[in-house]
Each structure stands twice: as structure tokens, then as C-alpha cells.
Amino acid sequence: MVFKLVRMTLRERKAGLVGAFVALVGASMLITAFGILLQSGLGSGVPTQRYAGAQVVVGGKQSFKVTEGKTKKKPLSQPAPLDSKVTDEVAAVKGVGRAVPDVSFPAQVVAGDGGLDSGGGEQPSTGHSWSSAVLGPFTLQRGRAPRQAGEVVLDAGLAEHVGVSPGQRVKLATTQEAREFLVTGVASLRGVDGPLRSAPVFFSDDEATALYGHPGRIDAVGVLAAPGTDPDELADRIDDRLDGSGAQTYLGDDRSQVEFHDVASARSGLTELAASLGATVVLIAMIVVASTLALNVHQRRRELALLRAVAATPRQVYKMMAAEVLLVSFVASVIGCLPGVVVAKIMRAALSLIGMVPKDFAFSYGPLPMLVAVFASVLAAEVAALGVARKAVAIRPVEAMGEARIEQAKLGRGRAFFGVLLFLLGVAASLLPLFFGSVFAVAGAGTGGLVMIIALLLLAPPVVSLASRLMAGPVRRHTGPHGYLAVANTRANARRLAAGIGPLTLAIGFALVQLCIPTTTAAAAQDQAEAGIVADFTLQGGPGGPPLGVVQDAASVPGVAATTGVVRVELHASRKVLGSPEIFKYQAQGVTPGQVDKTMDLDVTEGSLTKLRGDAAAISGGAASTLGAHVGDRVRLNLPDGSEARPVVVAVYERGLGFGDVTLPQDTVLAHSVRQVEDAVFVRTVAGADKGKVAKALHDLAGRYPGLEVLDRGGLSAAQQEQATSSVLTSALPLALVFGYLAISVANTLVLATLGRVREFSLLRLVGAPTGQVVRMMRVEAGMVVAIAVVVGTVVPLLPLVTVSLGLTGSPVPRIPVLMYLGIVAVTALIGLTAILLPTRLALRTRPVEGIGLRE
Hints:
856 residues, 4 domains
């Protein structure tokens, strides 16, 4: 009997379920797209090249563990380097024919104009030892192998690109001062035509080790298996041999994670992006679907009331609605998977454009994200339907028809209670930055803003009713009789309008929270960088950055008082919270000690940077608050290679956003990372020195260090601006998808709500209202709907934005780009107005005498 009712409902009330269908198609599309992002982040990205001949590659650990009562594991942004002794350990494993160590470092050809030639690939050319050529395998086309320092073998594509043949000399910029090398041969990767992703330059083994710059460390070990050895079984034996060392084995395309560091970073970024927004997408989908289903139930309240009046049990009503939603959600979610794949491809192109993923990074389009999307969409719809059906079955049968005749203004006690509770919790979380300077506070404020918006969705009917009463007087005075009707409709049908205003508010509020916190943070970082650089010049550029020798060479320039080299990395810090370790990711800088306070002003509030040597660290005030540390305390850090360190805090400073939350001696950073060059070198001149002459002398260093750029003190600020723009764009891209989904859902809800008012419009026309007056009434009503959504969607996020700005910058004015805000409001208003006024025109095409007889 229940399924017969379901079939009848779906056949007779197709229009009523169109809203839920469209919302679920969009939800499935979004979940599929984010699922593909996550799956791609867990995949390989690009095929291996230099390691194509190695059946197994052993790389450094890609994660680390922190144990403090409980154990937590976190990924590293790049694989850690290996101890060179691992090569002998691997070579001793049964089935290993040969274990070959590999190192990688910047090595680019210096062009005739003194600039650097990238080599023609996706990434700049890199240097390696000749012994690792067998892992390709690379075979000599012409010439011989390098036997001593000063000799190199070029990749065939690179040699053709720069026009060099064996016997000629080529100038190379590496991790040391640029110099000329004799090209002894040209090699090519067997089975590959065309340029490689990163053209290799092969040096003699001893010279490669020296240029790599990390004695006793290597990037990877390539394993050539003995004939007849199964690679999977060999990898298992190697894992057993290296158990506890942190080293990992890689097979197939996974080998590219070790070969290409940019691929490892892209994978990490995709995983974080998809994981951070995936749960939010599901929650928003559930809210939107619930709102759409609530409108559908509202339009069917007479039908549901009649079912209750003729003795339909609550269980039967639940089953009927669950079956309806199951069928609609399953079909809609399956249909939504295909456009989800298209959206993922668009995302891939956009992320490549802003530099988050390499251009040749391939996404993985397997069936798993689609299956998850179908399951999640159906589950979200069923949960939403359960909550909506609860209202329908709560009415006693004897009261059912009476309840259906009027719209109840009051909320249910449960909905009102949870709405108020969530709003208060959101307010409390939004105030955290006023009392704490930690990362908890900023994250809590952002979450608090979203919680407040969700709370207002639960409280939307009374909020709409209150807003309508506040607007009633001005609207009536300025719009005449049609305005009077619009106000009456808005006040009498607050619950119906709330179904459209709620998601409209969510769209504006969600966009402001997600975009304006990053813009406020980015602006604060740029301001701190501008205020904190007291150096006169910033040196950047070179093969991956200025070589380490630039610091001393710049210091020897007449008129230079101080130089500081800076290496920027990611690391983690942890502390025990409620019996469990909490791990925080921080941007850090490794600085050459001794003259830091002469080139940058970190705004030190405790301690002194002069003690920043050896086993020491300086941390920002925000990090100090998060970690509960002060000068003299030790903090637990996991350095870029995952190794644990407990340096003593010698200083606390305020400009952590501009310079990184952790500052360490550069030797510590270089010893525990794969970095071999500086990111920047700050130069301070002697008081009264001729800065023009100093600048010319620094420019002359480019002859020894090709690609070196001499910038003014704003160099770091420019870098901060570029990084900030990239960060905001990275946040905006996925947000654009969510915002688009919300916009479509809002339009869908408002269209259905307006088309469902044919009887109301017909009655107005039959009692003498001309068509033009009905249209003007709807214009006023649409304006009120948009105004309420814009005001509420703007005001609610202001609290967390203001507190975050106060906590980060000391100013209560958050950085909200005016054009961005106006764009969000304009798009939202256009959607709202169009979704109401266009259906109104369509509804008015029905003759009044016909429209008055239509069903709800």
C-alpha cells in the first residue's frame, strides 16, 4: 500500500519533487568532484621517468608519529632524505640485483644572455650522479661517461635544446658558484621520445655528492631486481629489512612521488583541500536538501493531513516519504556523477593555472568517488527527509486538517532549542581570538561563523518574520498598495520564504567566512613583512634560489653591514591536550645566525635573537600561546624530515604571519631537509654608504650566480603578496563550486515556491487586482527577500571576521575586498530576483478562472 502511494505521488506531483531532484544532482556532482580530488591526491599524478628501469624505489618516510599517551600520525609535505647506509641494507636483501643511490639538486644551463635555461621540460633541469643513470635506464648516444670533476653528460633533449655536443663546454648554475663543465657525452632515456619532465644533468659520483650538499644523506635508492624476482615480494622483503627506519618502498607509478618533489607537494595539497571541504560539502548538501524537502512537505500539507485524518500511522507516513526520497535521491545522485567528473576536470585546469598542481599532473577518475557520491547523497537525503517528516507526523489525526489550513509561525521546541544553542556556541567560538592568540582561536572563530549561519537556518522562520515586521513600515510608505500586499505575504508566509532565504543567507555568509579570513590573514602577513624588513636589499633567484655562498659573497661587498640568508620550510609542533597529542603545521624560516636583528625586525617581545644558535628556536606569540611555551621552555618540533627536536625557546616575537611562526638556525633546517639553496638573502648597508654603488656590486654577483635578482626591501613583501594571492585563489576555487551549488539550489527553491502560488495570484486577479499590480507586489516581495538575505548573511559573519582581525592585526576592521563583496552580493541578488520574478510572469499566464481551481 505504501509503495502504491509512492508511485501515485511521483506520478502526480513530479513538480513538487523537482526541487529535491535538482538539489541532489548538484550534491552528487560536488561530492564526486571533491572525491576525485582526494583520490588524485592519493594517486601518483605523473608516471616515473628516471626510475622507470627500477622495479622498486626506496624513499624516505612521508609521515611521522607523535606519541603522548596516544599516538598520532601526520604526513610530510615531501619525502624525507635517507641515510646513505640504507643502500647497503637494501643491497643485502635477497632478490636485489643492484641497489643504486640517487641524489637530486638544481643544475641549469646558463644561457648566452646570462639567464637560466630551464631545459624545455615541465620542471627545470636537475643534477644527478652518473651511476644513477642505470635506473632509467639512460644510454649513451654519443661520447663517454663523466669520470672526474668538471665533466657532465647531458640528456639528449637538453643537449639539443641548448645546442651543445660532446667535446664542447657548457656553463652550469648549481648549488655553488656557476662554472663551465666539459660535456663528455649525451644520453637518452630508453623508450622515451621527446623532452623529459625534468631534463637530467649527470655528474661524476663524487662531484654530485658535493653539489648535493648533504653528506651522508641521499634522496632515494633505486633497486634493480635479480632476474625472475617478483617486485611485490621484493618490496615486502625490503620493508622487513628496513622496518623501523621510516624508509618506504614504492612500486609502479608511485615511484614518481620520490622522483618529483613538486608532485609530492601537489598530492599533499589536493588531499588537504578535498579533506577539509569534503565534510562541509556534505553538510551543506544535507541542509539544502532538507530545505527543499521542507518546502515540498509544506506544499503537500493538506495531502499529508488527510492521510493522518484517515488513520495513516506515523510509521506509514515515514515509510512513504523515505521511499519517495530514496527513489528520487538514487536517480538524481547517479545522474550527478557525470557532471561531477567534468567539474573535477575544470578544477584540475584551474588548480594548474594558479600553480597548485603541475600542468602534467593527471587526475584519477576511478569509480570509487562516484559510488561514495551516490551513497552520501542518498544518506543525506534520507536523514533530511527523516527530520522533515517528523513535523508531518507530529500532528494528531483529529487536528490534522485544521493544522493544514494555516501556516504555523512557531517553531517546534526541539528546532528552536538547537537553533539557539548552536547560535550561542557560534558566538562563543567567534570570540576566542579576543582571549587567545593561538591557531585554535582563529580556526574556532571561522568555525563559529559557519555554526552561527547554520543556526540561523534553523531559526529562519522567526528571523524572516521579525525582519518583515521591521521592514513593514518603510516598505508600505514607499511602495503603496502593492507594498502592503507584499508585506502581508511575507509576514504570513515566513516559513515558506525561509526555505529560500535560508540557503541564500548561507551562500553569502559561507562565502564571506571562507574568503575574508584568508584575505585578512594575507593582508596581515604582508603588512608584517613590510614593517619587519629593515634590510636595504633582498637577493632572490638562481637555480631554485640563491646558492648558500651568496650570503658570504654579499657580506664582502664594500658598504654592506650585515647579511642574512633565509630558508623557508614547513614543520610541525605538538603538545599534549586532554591526554592526547595535538599537532600543528607551521611555516618556519632557517636563518644564518648572528646578524638577524640587523636585517629583519621580528618585533621580539621576550628574549633575544642573538642567542639563536645550535639547539635554540624563536617562536611567534601565536605559536607560544598554542604550544603553551615561554622563553626558557623547550618545545617539541618535528622538522621537515620528520625527526623530532626539542629546542629551547630563546625569543618570542609578534610578526609570525610575515616571517613564519618558528625561526631556527639555518644549519638545523638544512641538516633536516632536502633544501640546498636559500630562498632569499637580506642585505643591510652601512649607515651613510652609497646604496647605488652597493646595488651595482650586488648586481655584479649575478655573473658568478646567474639568475640572481637584486630587489629593494620590498622583495619579501612582493613574495608575500604572490603567496597570499595564490592562497586566496586556492580557497576561492572550491568555494566557487559550493557557492554555485547554493545559488542553483536557492533559485530552484524560490522558483518552485513562486510557481506554487498560482491559486493565490488567480484569487488576487479575480477580486480586482490587475496583472501589473501583482507583478509590482512580487517585485517588492523579491526585494524584501534579497534584502533580508544580504543583511543577515553579511552581519552574522562580521563577528568572527572582526575578532580574527583584532587577534591578528590589532585592528577591528577585517580586510574584505570591496569588489569581491559587491560581486557576491550582486550575484546573490540577481539569482534571488530572477528566481522570483521570472516564475511570477509564467504563473500569471494562467487564466484566473482556471488557476483558482488548481491543486496546491
